[in-house]
Write a structure and sequence with these properties.
The complex is a heterotrimer of chains A (97), B (502) and C (170). By secondary structure, chain A is mostly helical. Chain A contains 3 helices and no strands.
Chain lengths: 97, 502, 170
Amino acid sequence: MITPALVLSAFLFVIGAFGVLVRRNAIIMFLCIELMLNAVNLTFVALSRVVGIEGQLFVFFVMTVAAAEAAVGLAIMISIFRHYETVNVDNFNLLKW
Amino acid sequence: MVIDFSSNLDYVRALLPEIILCVWGMVVLMAGVWRGESSEEGPRAEGLGWLALVGVAFAAVANGWLHGVREVGTDGMIAVDGFRLFSNWIFLTAALLGMLVSFAYVYRQRLQAGEYYALMLFSVAGMMFMAGARNLIVVFLGLEVMSIAVYALSAFNRRDRRSAEAGLKYFILGAFSTGFFLYGIALTYGATGSTHLPTIALAVSNGTAHGALLLFGVALMGVGFAFKVSAVPFHMWAPDVYEGAPSPVTAFMSAGVKAAAFAAFFRVFLVSFQGAYESWYGVMWWLSATTMVGANLIALVQTNVKRMLAYSSIAHGGYLLVAITAANQASAGAALFYLLVYTVMNISAFAVVIAVSNHGEERLEFEDYAGLGRNQPGLALLLTLFLLSLAGFPGTGGFMAKFQLLLGAMDAQLWVLSVILVLSTVVSYAYYLRLAWYTWMRDPADGGSPLPVYLPIGMRLALVVGAAVVIWLGLFPGSVLDLARASAAGLGVAGPMVEILH
Amino acid sequence: MIDILFYVFAALALGGAMGVVAGRSPVASLLFMVLCLGSVAGIYVLLEAHFLAAVQVIVYAGAIMVLFLFVIMLLNLGHNYHPDLKAGLWSALSFAVAGALFGFLGRQLWGNRTMTPEAGDSVDALVAQYGAVGAIARPLYTEWVVPFEITGILLLVAIVGALVLAKQRV
């Protein structure tokens, strides 16, 4: 079950990366980034069966980091929404995307 | 004093500079709260800045004290070696200059001073964790502490929509690159069975690591680092973020964040992945070549000074990637020296930009510098000095640093890359000197004299320190260069690796 | 039995992930994300990582996703039904890049089926001795105490950053 889990996590990671590239709604882009982090967590848990308990510890830290990023990222989105009334990245044109 | 990490008290000693910075960040935060509403008034906001600088000074004392500490073994989560301590000096310099140039900006733009300086202190602590890490978890968490603080700082000016936009762009692309970096860590962990850098190095060099997984791990971590140091195919966030973020934050992150990312890049690739040198050497070669050529060519056509300096900062990243490609002792020492010089001259150049833009986001085009030489000859002279140093003019620190990088590259027999380095430096003269030409030779378009420039005490101090360091390191680099070389020796790079190649 | 459960969870996780990318409104994407996180938590259980499965459900699918939902509701983005995929050529290019990445990765991971759970027994022994929480908590407070403390700073930085950026009064 280790190998299928690793392949599954690679698939989830790639779907997340694809989503970041093609979506234009900043919140969904961020959700796709969370999906990538989640895929990495699955890799760590699967590898912890092969290597040792450190993989599970790593997952613990990645979850904390995801929470911290979510707090700051969503705050940034609220602050940009105050200026533009949207979170669609195509509408931001002061700086080129 | 000897540290062997047998008890947790040893960690308290080994992490003293970081602990001081974090505690002091909380002190500044509390001081900002107690000042209440009035904290946004000029003199009081400046008082918080000086308070934060006291914390930097304490951390510097602690860092100096660590020079006398000897470390036994490499089991700890954190390294106490020369490389870490020299990197810490670079970050503390970036913090000192970055705060000094912020004083007037913070109260003129009515930013919340307490949170601003506290976030700066926290991000410096994050940089130190990155540079000193002996375990990938500490690299990762240090990277995140630094990045999250800097995301918030980029979006800090809430009245300015460009600042919010810069924050969003930096955040999305930064978090995206974190995903790749983390996946790289996961695969490396699977391939080598550890996240401890010396253990990984052992597994990689004696071939017990799983080849294909390791290759992907190295590649994905390389992508993550390339994003953070803004190497050219992964640079697209940098110009926009540097342009949109508040100028002092741009100054701070174009120097500090880059230095920290490079320090971790060096430690991970030169210590842990040294045994896989053949597999990443080619990619790194192309990365540094495209970065040097691409960034310098795009910088030629910029008309906004902050954007020009952003591309210049990307180009400097390209020169430093040459040192990673060379992967030898001489290059590692040269890169540390280069990072120190780059930090000082880049923040100082931004200091002039901040002063000319009236501690706000105005007068940032090249045309706005016309007539500066006539009205403010002293400031124009300093700007010219910093631009010449960034370009690498003989007699300045920038020249000495670039010359050392070149020596390191030649030592590793990277002839083509050395030629590209020299040629792209020649190209870079064009855009640096174009700004100098605007300052001295052009009259303002409207014929009137430009606004007077306000230079508060902090800004003056930053400019004087910057100019002194740039000239001093240009003329007498000896002692600092020796220290940088000795510090890099602690990295454990086993001499030139050319024999593996040929 | 366990294998069948694994493939059920894997299919749900993949479906959820695709739903996140294809979802028309942010709320739909978010609910698909919760589905994906829940299924991955199920896989954690199958991989004997019970504590992480619980944390995944409570913290990830619970707290973090609720934070997202809260922001979506606050900004009133729930009715954002217009499709927002980027232009055709860019999508095709992204698809090619993502497909190539998965092709390489998947081939290597799949070709490497010799990977056996050789540390599985040691992990199980730790869990049997200290319990599912203790097996993770013991190293967390001993060898990994430095990263643990750094996490504290990280959370403080996140709190300060979020407060400064999202505070009502400008």
